[in-house]
Amino acid sequence: MKKLTLLALALPLVATLSINEANAEGLGVHGTLGLPMGDFSDFAGLGFGGGVSWTRELNENMTYAAKVSYLTFGGKDVDAFGGSTEYSYSMIPVVAKTNYYFGGSESMRFYGSLSAGYYFVSVDVGSASSSSGEIGFAPGVGMEMGNLDFNAEYHLIDGSNLTYLGINVGYNF
Fold it and tell me: Quick one: which of 91, 106, 93 has its CA closest to 57?
């Protein structure tokens, strides 16, 4: 898993060496709605967040991006050890992302994506807190309409049960 993630992170960097400077690049911002999945949904509520990205075109069908986000997931009260404990989570995913476009026009394009990177995770349990970092990846699908970007990504974080569906709305400058 770690070798696959490192490969996914290295590919855009290697590709940069062979890119013509005329290729388009730009900055973007996005808002995220995080839906906890699987075991994670037992401990975390709905998540909200946002982030920024830098994108560069490899060719007319492919782009790569660097993306940093912040998400906070609402707490849930969980009955454990004869009492109730509230959990809340926050995370900062720092990922490299590649989009492959399936035809379309400049006004509307559909794509599949793969993101891989490092997720800084913090959990608060009652009055205690803990932080860690994990490698993760996220396959996704999306649609661009002009400067607007709508997508959904399924985030899988290695070594944990932290999986969530991220629904994103972004604007690319």
Answer: 106
Q: For the whole model, what pTM was predicted?
A: 0.81
Cα–Cα distance between 12 and 2 in angstroms, integer?
Answer: 17
Domain map (residue ranges) of the chain: 2-14+28-172
**Rounded CA gap, 71 and 63, in Å?**
24
Integer Cα distance of 99 and 102 in angstroms: 10
Domain 2-14+28-172: assigned CATH number: 2.40.160.20
Instruction: Note the pLDDT tens digit of each residue in 13-63.
Output: 544 444 444 567 899 999 999 999 998 888 888 999 999 999 999 998 999
Alpha-carbon distance 164 to 34, whole Å? 6
C-alpha distance across the termini of the chain, in Å: 34
User: Which of 90, 64, 63, 62 minimizes the C-alpha distance to 75?
Assistant: 90
d(C-alpha 77, C-alpha 74), whole Å: 10
